[in-house]
TrEMBL record:
<dbReference type="GO" id="GO:0031452">
    <property type="term" value="P:negative regulation of heterochromatin formation"/>
</dbReference>
<feature type="binding site">
    <location>
        <begin position="436"/>
        <end position="445"/>
    </location>
    <ligand>
        <name>S-adenosyl-L-methionine</name>
    </ligand>
</feature>
<dbReference type="GO" id="GO:0031509">
    <property type="term" value="P:subtelomeric heterochromatin formation"/>
</dbReference>
<dbReference type="GO" id="GO:0031571">
    <property type="term" value="P:mitotic G1 DNA damage checkpoint signaling"/>
</dbReference>
<dbReference type="GO" id="GO:0000786">
    <property type="term" value="C:nucleosome"/>
</dbReference>
<comment type="similarity">
    <text>Belongs to the class I-like SAM-binding methyltransferase superfamily. DOT1 family.</text>
</comment>
<protein>
    <recommendedName>
        <fullName>Histone-lysine N-methyltransferase, H3 lysine-79 specific</fullName>
        <ecNumber>2.1.1.360</ecNumber>
    </recommendedName>
</protein>
<keyword id="KW-0949">S-adenosyl-L-methionine</keyword>
<dbReference type="InterPro" id="IPR025789">
    <property type="entry name" value="DOT1_dom"/>
</dbReference>
<feature type="region of interest" description="Disordered">
    <location>
        <begin position="1"/>
        <end position="38"/>
    </location>
</feature>
<dbReference type="GO" id="GO:0042393">
    <property type="term" value="F:histone binding"/>
</dbReference>
<dbReference type="InterPro" id="IPR029063">
    <property type="entry name" value="SAM-dependent_MTases_sf"/>
</dbReference>
<dbReference type="InterPro" id="IPR021162">
    <property type="entry name" value="Dot1"/>
</dbReference>
<dbReference type="GO" id="GO:0006334">
    <property type="term" value="P:nucleosome assembly"/>
</dbReference>
<keyword id="KW-0808">Transferase</keyword>
<dbReference type="GO" id="GO:0006301">
    <property type="term" value="P:DNA damage tolerance"/>
</dbReference>
<feature type="binding site">
    <location>
        <begin position="413"/>
        <end position="416"/>
    </location>
    <ligand>
        <name>S-adenosyl-L-methionine</name>
    </ligand>
</feature>
Length: 622
């Protein structure tokens, strides 16, 4: 075996690479010496294999979570006032009639550079302080277990439903004048803001250093009704089952407690403090909350519940709430939550979540649904973060199973990450009429992103491995429940699990209708790539194939034996992906979009004729 594997299935070389990646200094594979006598194809495969760091897989989507990209200090300098950023839309709103308009992100707001946290919520510019257990913090065990699926004070639920539109104005006023107004007990939660103002009374000079969501990030135009308004109008109660965040952190804590201290040394922030359970109010279902454990004493390297809460709160303002209500959050609660997070102030953080809950319960539901009905665009990151929530609940706890494959086999696991998929799906013009198929769909990420982002007519995937198939089922279950919880309209998804795409009638049927085919063939061997080629004979003209390796091998030429082959009818476009696009490396790389044509690709003919000319022996005549 050219590269020895250790018990983790990690090559010694890969371990170096992982170590280097952990140090933020990703190294170049050092096994790229040419092996004498090896064919070009073999050479290419070996080089690719050495670019593949399977250890990344175990914490998937780790590279999506990695925080190695630092915002420049310069960017912080040019940050501008968030108060001003949200003031203008509200002023505009007040001049308007009562009509609710979709959220329009004004140029004014979009100009602003607000520093963003990474998706784990960790920002290395914020000092990780080891906080001793505060006396004021009630240990989690002392708090009564809340009933599953019930909201905090239920008496407010009916009020929630009965609110009239006039209440909105009242709320706008109260959020302007009395930002911390809450029906829940108030702590003396004073948070030092960067501007030195008292929490909740941010002056126009207040400048948040960072947010949980990138408020200036790219937007996704909605091609279909992302929100299922009919469903939301037909029910005010959520009856599904979502895996609460607290379940993840509790499991993590139990695991740490069982781990012998020596193995635990990595988590050197471990201490006896166990955090506090809190409930986060669902924005759409008054009867429902999600349970979280707030605990700033630990270093949540893979999953940070506080950061997730921050995102939920910010997306309430960015996506769910009409502008008049969103203002109440952007002017008060969001800055306070960011301050509390930055200062690792558990008490202030929890108080702010309580205030958010109270605020959300007072928003008339019909104003939210009316607003969602009229939405024309959302931040791209909204779907990515939603998918990440689903992933953390369903895949994270068992991600280690995805590493059980034979090294360098066709079953090596790796994922294409959400930002890359958004880009490539747009390039392939994926839309509501499209049929999307993923050959080797892993845990189903690419399939569900196609369904959610573009509302495809059908999004399908075929996966052979038992563990990946089981995880697909878990992920799909969490997804459907979470879609209901968030009011999202999930278009048809079909998985062919525990079966090969080779000689598979269902796959062939789908392929005949397929508009966009994905084959992550990065480490498929030539035999399997040949099978993919045979399958492509069924693809219709116009079908686009996304592949990580060129389906037409290097030096491919047309000859009498392959003249009718589909490879001759492919128009191949070589593209590059940016760093942090795939799970197995931070580095960028190449991928291919091939379009099936009804006649031979002319560039191939030209290349062939050029090739022939240059090979013709020169004649010397007089
Ligand atoms: C690199 S993973 C890609 C996962 C996902 N498509 C992505 O890109 O994020 C390749 C997957 O193909 C699956 N696979 C390999 N050969 C297969 C076959 N003959 N039939 C179905 N799935 C196969 C592997 O088990 C693995 O889960």
């Amino acid at each position: 075996m050219p590269l020895g594997l250790d018990s983790n299935g990690t090559t010694g070389q890969n371990k170096d690479a992982v170590q280097a990646a952990a140090n933020g200094t990703e190294q170049k594979p050092h096994n790229n010496k040419k092996i004498r006598g090896a064919s070009k194809e073999l050479q290419g495969l070996l080089e690719d294999a050495s670019k593949y760091y399977p250890a990344y897989d175990c914490t998937l989507p780790t590279s999506y979570l990695k925080s190695h990209v630092q915002e420049s200090a310069e960017k912080v300098d040019v940050e501008v006032n968030m108060y001003e950023a949200v003031k203008q839309p509200v002023e505009q709103k007040q001049e308007q009639t009562d009509d609710v308009k979709p959220v329009k992100r004004t140029k004014h707001r979009r100009r602003h550079n607000v520093k963003r946290r990474d998706t784990t919520g960790h920002d290395t510019s914020v000092k990780e302080t080891e906080r001793p257990m505060e006396e004021t913090v009630q240990p989690m065990e002392e708090i009564a277990e809340p009933e599953k699926g019930t909201a905090e004070p239920m008496e407010e639920t009916s009020e929630f439903m009965e609110e009239t539109a006039e209440f909105a104005d009242e709320t706008i006023q109260s959020s302007l004048t009395s930002p911390t107004a809450s029906t829940e007990p108030q702590n003396d939660t004073t948070v030092d803001t960067p501007a030195g103002t008292h929490a909740g009374t941010h002056s126009p000079e207040y400048t948040p250093l960072k947010n949980f969501v990138d408020w200036d990030g790219p937007m996704l135009k909605l091609e279909y009704n992302l929100f299922d308004i009919d469903f939301l109008n037909s029910t005010t109660e959520f009856t599904g089952e979502i895996t609460p965040s607290a379940q993840l952190t509790t499991a993590d804590r139990e695991h740490r407690a069982k781990t012998p201290p020596i193995a635990r040394s990595r988590h050197n922030t471990y201490n006896a403090h166990t955090g506090q359970r809190i409930l986060l109010q669902s924005i759409l279902f008054p009867n429902c909350t999600e349970e979280y454990i707030v605990d700033f004493s630990k270093n949540f390297d893979k999953y940070d519940p506080m950061s997730e809460i921050g995102k939920v709160v910010e997306y309430s303002a960015l996506v769910f709430l009409p502008q008049d209500y969103a203002h109440g959050l952007t002017q008060d609660i969001i800055p306070r939550l960011n301050d509390a997070y930055d200062n690792a102030d558990e008490t202030a953080f929890i108080q702010t979540v309580h205030d958010y809950n109270t605020f959300i319960r007072r928003v008339p539901r019909h104003r939210i649904t009316q607003h969602l009905r009229e939405l024309t665009q959302i931040p791209q990151s909204f779907i990515h973060d939603f998918l990440h929530v689903v992933y953390t609940r369903s895949i994270h706890p068992q991600a280690f199973k995805l590493k059980k494959y034979k090294a360098f086999s066709n079953y090596v696991y790796g994922e294409l990450l959400p930002t890359f998929l958004t880009d490539v799906y747009q390039r392939c013009n994926l839309n509501t009429n499209s049929v999307f198929l993923d050959l080797g769909s892993g845990v189903g990420n690419c399939v569900i992103q196609a369904a959610l982002e573009h509302g495809c007519r059908t999004s399908a995937g075929c996966e052979i491995m038992e563990d990946a198939s089981t995880l697909t089922e878990l992920q799909y279950k969490e997804l459907t429940n979470r879609c209901h919880f968030n009011g999202l309209n999930l278009k048809p998804v079909q998985f062919l699990l525990r079966q090969s795409f080779v000689d598979n009638e269902a796959v062939i049927t789908l392929l005949r209708d397929c508009d966009v085919l994905l084959v992550n063939n990065f480490l498929f061997d030539s035999k399997l790539n040949k099978v993919v080629e045979t399958l492509l004979e069924n693809a219709k003209v116009g079908c686009k194939i996304i592949s990580l390796k060129n389906l037409r091998s290097f030096g491919y030429t047309i000859d009498a034996n392959n003249i009718d082959g589909v490879l001759n009818r492919l128009k191949v476009q070589k593209c590059t992906f940016k760093e942090d696009s795939v799970s197995w490396t931070h580095s960028g790389g190449d991928y291919y979009i091939s379009t099936v044509q009804n006649c031979i690709d002319e560039s191939l003919l030209q290349a062939t004729s050029r090739f022939r000319r240059s090979k013709r022996p020169e004649r010397y005549t007089r």
